[in-house]
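Thread: Modeling a multi-component assembly for a lab meeting

Hi all, long-time lurker, first post. My supervisor asked me to bring a structural picture of a complex we are working on to next week's group meeting, and I have zero experience with this. I have the sequence lines for every component (731 residues in total). Could someone generate the structure of the whole assembly? Inputs are pasted exactly as I received them:
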Amino acid sequence: MPGTFTRSFAVALAILVAIGATTYWGLERIAVARAERRHTVDVRDRLSRLLRALQDAETGQRGFLLTGQEPYREPFVTGSLAARAELDSLLQVAAPDTDLTLPLRALTPAVEAKLAELTLTMDVRRERGAAAALQVVLTDRGRVLMDSVRAIIGGIQGVERARYDRDDVVVDRASRWVRASSVVGTILAVGFLGIAAVVVRRDLAARQAVERRLEEMSSEMNDLYERAPCGYHSLTPEGLIVRINRTECRWLGYERDEVVGKMTVFDLIAPVDRTRARARFDQLVSGVDIGTGEARFVRKDGSMVAALISSTLVRDASGAPWRVRATMLDQSGFRAAKEQVDRLNAQLQRHVSELEDLNRELEKFSYSVSHDLRSPLRAIAGFARLLGDEHAAALDAEGLRLLNVVQVNVERMGRLIDDLLALSRFSRQPLVRVPVDMAALVAGVLADRAAAGAPHGADIVVGELPPADGDPTLLRQVWERLIDNGVKFSAGREAPRVEIGAHGDHGSTVYTVRDNGVGFDMEYAEKVFEVFQRLHPQSDYEGTGVGLAIAQRVIHRHGGRIWAEAAPGRGATFSFTLGAKGGA
Amino acid sequence: MVDSDQVEILLVEDSAEDAELTLRALKKNNLANRIFHARDGVEALDFLFGRGANAEPATLRMLRVVLLDLKLPRVDGIEVLRQMRTDPRTKLVPVVVLTSSREDPDIAKCYALGVNSYIVKPVEFQEFIKVVSSLGLYWLLLNQPPQ
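Re: Modeling a multi-component assembly
Sure thing. I ran the full set together rather than chain by chain. Output:
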C-alpha cells in the first residue's frame, strides 16, 4: 500500500529531522555553555594573575622596606605593571558580564589604593628611613587594602564559580537530551523505516509479479505476432516498413533487416498493382476505411505471391496518422484450390454437355424409332385389317387364323415400342419433387382401369397410403405398372386379389402391392426388373417385359428402392420406398 | 387432279400407306371426295401458293383443313406450317399436325407456330379410322371457318 509507505516514510523523516534539530539545539547549548565556561576560567585566571601581580608588588615593597636598596624594589615595579595590565584586560574581557559590573567597578579603585599605599610606604622609607616606614606598615592599612582587593576578587570568583556550575548543569542536560533523542528517535525512525521497507518490499514483489505477467504476455503476443499464419506489418504514413513479422518475411523471402526501415511496402508490391495500392493507401491515411483488398507481392527471388490485405490506420495522441497496420493473407493456396475447383468444374461441365449431347442423341433416336417403326407397323395393321374386312371371303379358316396371328403380333409390337419409348422418356424427363397424395394417385389409376372396362375380376383392396414427395406423373407410372402387374398375374386364380398398402420402416414409408397370383422363384427376383426379362411365357401372360423396368427406373430416379418378394404359386409382393428429398 | 378451288382437305403425307389408310378412313365417312394429297412439303407449298407444276394459284375458297405430317422429304412440315402462317392467304387455314410419335421434339415448335391441333397417329387401324374420321367430321362439318 503506497499510503502506508508514504506515511511511515514521512514519520521516519520527521523523526530524523527532529533528532537533527534536537542534536543541533543541544550541541549549540553545549557550545554556548563551553564558551561561557572558557570565559569564566579566563576571568578567574586573570583574577588570579592580578592577585599574584599585587602580591609580587607587595613582596617588592617589603624587600625595599627592609633593605632600602633599589634592586629589592624591582618586583614591585613589575608586579604593579602586571597588575595594571591584568586589570585593563580583565575589564575588557569581563565588560559584557552585567553580573560583574558592580564588583569590577570596585576593583580598580581597590587595586589603585593598594598600589598607592605600597608606593607611599616606599616613599616614606626612602625619605624617613625604615622606622618611619615600619610605623606606616604597622598602621595595618596595607593589609586592609589587600584584604579588600581579595574580597572583591573572591566575590567575582564566586559569581564565576556559580556560573560555571550552572553551565555544567546546562551541558549535562543538553547532553542527556541529545543522547536520549538520538537513541529514541533513531529507534523510532528505524521502526518506521522498517515499516516503509516492508511496504516497499511488498509493493515491489507485487510489481515484479505484474511485470513478470506483462513480460509473459508480451512474449506470448510477440510469439503470436511472429508465428501467426498471416503476415503482419506496420508502416509509417509514408509507407515505410517499421515492423514486420516472421511469417511475412518468410513469405517474401527477405530477412527482417533488409526490410525494416529500408523498404516501403510499395517496393514489395508488384508494379502492376502498385498504383492502385498507392491510391488505396493514401485513401486510408486520409481517413477512409478501405476494408480488405488484394495485391500481388514480389518475393526477393522475383516470384509473385497473391495476398489479401486488411489495413487499419493508427493515430497518435494528437489525432494525426501515425502508423498503418496491415494483415496479409497468402492467397496462393486459395488460388490454387480455386483453380482446381475451376478445372474440375470445367471438366464437370464438359461431362454434362457430353451427357446432354448423348441425351439429345437418344431423344433423336427415340423419335426416329418411334416414327420409323410405327409407320410400317401402322401400315401392316391397317392393311391386315382391310384384308380381314374386305377379303375375308377369299380366305379359308387357316388363312384367317394366320391373319389374326399377324394382327396380334403387330399390336404387341406397337405396345413394345410404346413401352420402350416410355422407359426412355421416364429416364430423361426432368424430375420434379412436390408433395404427392399417393392415395389419390392410386385411386386415379384404379378409376382409369375401371373406365377402360378391362375385365379382370380381381378384388382390389387399398389400404392407407401416406403422402410422399416426388414426381406425380412418374409415380403414377409406378402405380400403374405395379397394379397392372398384380392384376395380370392373379387373374388365373380362384379369388384373385390385389392388396395395395404402406407401412413405416426405419422412418421411411414402404409402399406395397401384393397379389395372390402365380408368384415366381426368388432366384429370379432381380430379373423381374430387367428390360425384356420375362419369368412367364408370353402365351400365358401378355406383357412387354418393360413395365417393371420402368417402375424401377422411376424409383431409382427418386433415390428410392424397389424389390420383390415371391414364391411360386403363392403370389408376389412388390415394395418400394422413395428416397429423401434431393435424390434424383 | 382435283380443282384446287374445290379442295376441302389438304393431306400432306409422304407415306403412301398412311395416305391410303387416311383416304379410306375419310371415304368411309363420305368426306374424301375433295381431298388433295401432297406427298411432300414442296408439293404442299406448290398447291397452296400455286407454284411450280401447279402454276395456277389456288384461291383456296373451300379449303377447310390441312392434315400435315411433320416428317416429310425435301421441305418438312414445320417449314410448310411456318410459310402458311406468314402468308395472309393461308394464315387462318386450320392445320392439324399428324405424327407417328408422341416423342416429337417439334410439338412445342408447332404450337408456337400456331397449329390448331396435334394428333398422334395410332398404330391400331380401328383407332386410326376413328381419329381420322372424327378429325374430318370436326373440321369439315362442325368447325366454323374464319371469315
